[in-house]
Specification:
By secondary structure, the chain is an alpha+beta fold. It contains six helices and nine strands, in the order ββαβααββαββββαα. The strands form three sheets. Strands 4-9-8-6 form a four-stranded mixed beta sheet. It has a three-stranded antiparallel beta sheet with strand order 2-1-3, with no helix packed on it. It has a two-stranded antiparallel ribbon with strand order 5-7.
Length: 190
């Protein structure tokens, strides 16, 4: 199914673009949300007009959010969590956790869908991207450390002990070598 995008759609395209999408995606999401219309001959005539209007809106929005992007760019979020000896967390730090912490720090509403990162499951320093618009994507730093320790210890690498090598499940451990001399010295009955 071909659709004409009316608004910018993340990971699909910009307003005014004609895209081929799955029928269900078009009928059940794009059309009802008002993000696109069917790409008919009449709609295609308006594509250039839609493109130019969207460009003006996009430029105004980018200009408006540029200050916020500069403010977010320097943000460092720290999370104190419970973790095991190897540095693995009991649970994880998700996009929702990062969005909530960022919202408290900047006083700007950030949705979890705007935060682009994988769930964090270990202690360390990570980066996350906050998608304000398709063009403004500032990067933030996320530091995860154990409860009771300081965030600086993660930066120095003190709180992450190297995991010991463990044998694979079901794998055989090497047999301990028995000294051959001890077997040769056994007394014989005479």
């Amino acid at each position: 199914m071909k659709v004409l995008l009316i608004k910018d759609v993340y990971k699909l395209g910009r307003a005014g673009d004609v895209k081929k999408v799955a029928a269900g995606y078009g009928r059940n999401f794009l059309l009802p949300q008002g993000l696109a219309v069917l790409a008919s001959a009449g709609a295609l005539k308006h594509a250039e007009k839609i493109r130019s209007q969207a460009e003006v809106r996009r430029a105004a929005l980018n200009e408006e959010l540029k200050g916020l992007a500069d403010q977010i760019k320097g943000v460092t979020l720290t999370f104190a969590t419970k973790a095991g000896e190897t540095g693995k967390l009991y649970g994880s730090i998700t996009t929702q956790d990062v969005a909530t912490a960022l919202q408290e720090q900047t006083r700007f509403e950030v949705k979890r869908q705007q935060v682009d990162m994988q769930p964090i499951r270990s202690i360390g320093e990570f980066t996350a991207h906050v998608r304000l618009t398709m063009d403004l994507v500032p990067e933030i730093k996320v530091i995860v450390h154990r409860e009771g320790e300081s965030a600086e210890s993660v930066k120095e690498g003190e709180s992450q002990p190297e995991p010991e090598a463990k044998p694979k499940k079901g794998g055989r451990r090497p047999k301990e070598a028995k000294p051959k001399e001890a077997a040769a010295e056994t007394p014989t009955a005479s």
